Give the backbone structure.
Amino acid sequence: MTVQTPPRSRTRPSGAPADGGLAARRAMTRWAWRMLRREWRSQVLVTLLLLLTVAVAVCGGTTLYNVPRQADPKLGTAGAVYVLNGQNGRAADLAADVATLRRAFGTIDVIGHSGYGVAGLAKAVDYREQAPHGTFTGQLLAIHRGRYPAGPNEAAVTTGVAKLLGLRLGGTVALDGHSRVIVGIAEDPSDLTDDFVLIAPSADSPPQTASVFVRTTGSNRGGLGLATVGQVMGQGPNTDHLVITTLVLGGATVLLLLVAFVAAAGFAVLAHRRLRQLGMLAAIGATARHIRLMMAVTGLLVGGLAAGAGAALGLALWPAVAAWLEPAVGHRVDRLDIPWPLVAGVGLLAVLMATAAAWWPARAVSRLPVTLALSGRPPAPRPSHRPALVSVFFLAVGLGLLAAGEKKSPALIVAGTVAMALAMLFAGPPAIRLLAAAGGRAPVAVRLALRDLGRHQARSGAALAAISLAVGIAAAIVVVTTGIQGSPTGGNLGDHQLLVGIARPGDPPGLVPIRTDAQLRGLAAQVDELAALLPRPTVIPLDLAYDPAASPELGLQGNEPVRRALEVDRPRGGGEYEGIPAYVATPDLLRLVGADGVRIPPATDVVTARAGPLVIFDAGRDARQPPSTHVSGPRFTSLPDTLLTSGALTRRHLTPVRAGWLVESAQPLTDAQRADARRIAAAAGLTVEFRDGHPGVRTVRAGATAGGLLLALAVLAMTVGLIRGEAAADLRTLTATGASAGIRRTLTAATAGGLALLGGILGTAGAGLGLVAVYRHDLAVFGRIPPGYPLVLLVGIPLVAAAAGWLLAGKEPPALGRRLSD
């Protein structure tokens, strides 16, 4: 408060401080504690706001900390894995190589693999011989229910195999011709999508291949003289924890900025409520430093209570979040693996930010003249364009950092995200002024609510920043998870797709069984029956092409005649090539690979989504590079991504042959639908392939978005309660002059809806601009976002906020005839 320093008292001892010293500070501290106990109801909303954001920060930080796997599902905790091939009568050589590795490295773990085809499935089921509790593989095997198999007549199966094949605990499995009793439900804790049948290691039935886990590759890797080694996988530098630690730090920083914004909004309202009390303190001799100390102590107490309770709530919610996280990330999560330094840091920073948030409005209030403070009406803020300029500055810095970091530098991404959050903070006051100006022709109640927001920009601006940040987090999660779902790491197929093939299990896609037209019509009918199980299915026929002058061959899995389809090869180096099935281009497949609307030159032979040169071996095995057009997609490894044009078929005298169908559902496939599809395919002599990785990306997107929206609505509800609570005097005046309950409801609804609308626009725009900088080389990700999410962010939240404000308001305020005393 701007007051005159009282003259030195004659009774004050010589040398005593003019501001009362330690005794005065103790008195202000006690007074702050007493006022907090007396006015605890007015502090409830602020405390709940801080408690909620701290709980989200603790639970969210713990979630991010547990995202990386504890062990590499391919390497475990080993330094290298030697993959040995014992097929084609080389079982003795495989056993000798295992013995050689044991002598060379001492402690080793051996996992045997044998694949057995199943009717109706395109991929063979892995029979895995693995001893439990291995030195390097202990984290790659666990029993979910039951027990480990102990003899040659026992087995354990994973949940995926049990659901797909209709197996159960206590039943039998005999895919290899040897019937075994199922005594357990097994899993790979580091990869829950890994499906296999676990059997006990046995010397009587050597595996087809073996993976030997060793501590390190050693200096004598090249001199071991192994006869069956096919591949050596080495343990590269593990940067996952460094990246995740950086992301945790960035996420915690952003959430703590949310804490600061929320606290600033709450304490700005409390400072206004206490304005007359602070004026009385200044009138009886309290200095500006005393005023700031009293508010800072209030912030310290409220922040400490909220930090403790919020951390406890976040840790209490963590087990439930962990259960939801496991299917999303595809590995088991240790409930006791809690980053205690992060929890302590979040709590400490929350207390410090709450204290600073209480001190800052007290600094502004302490500069008011005493008479103005006693009137309870702070002066209207002076218009200033500096917040807009500062917002533009932070926006430019944030976009620059995000563009420089792209998707490779977590540190730059974190710094850019913080800068974008600050840009939202400083963009709040100008946005509120624009909203108030835009409401000039609105009804009286709406105009009053919007002008009240513009008149008190300090509190409404901080509240708007908190809402914008919560919406921005939800929008960012939608885009990022959509990008992951469409990336090459997103799995072999989409979670709503299945691939039906004619080839026998174990045969490569390029070998197509010879079928008559009548047989193909019967198979197509079976595919239609399979598709009828799905909601709003789409069936896309898949054709390969073959040379009719070539003689039929015999399939690898039997004596059935097959045709060898033309393949496009990609050089691997060293004279090796990767064969790629080349499907016949149709409008549906051209749209699938991203060539829809792309002008394809008439001379083009191949349309491909694969990078690098492609070759075709013509007659005489001469490699020729065909005229090709490169396009953008698809992003899943099992989808057709290389197509032969109709011109190529004519020029090369090729004939199309039906190889399968791609079936797409309007919704993700359920376990029951997968099992029914396999049953129908097996009965028809077909094979099906489903998605085998990242099953929970859609769940992460929906769940995290819902969490972000609930946080935004909670922040919005509490800040609206604070703002409208502060305006109780105005509401009493309106009621006394005849304002109806509809007017009171409209005031609250307009306040909530206006803040939610601005928050949705700022949060979505800020997150969108930042992600455009990150995904500037892959802008197609924005076209794959389900349209429902932007509608929820920009339309759903304002409507819900306005409706809630309308329903919960309207109660007649007490004491209409007089102003409540302080």
Summary: The chain has four domains: 18-72+238-248+256-370, 81-233, 380-487+697-822, 490-689. The longest strand covers residues 655-664. The chain has 21 helices and 25 strands. Residues 3-11, 236-240, 816-822 have pLDDT under 50 and may be disordered.
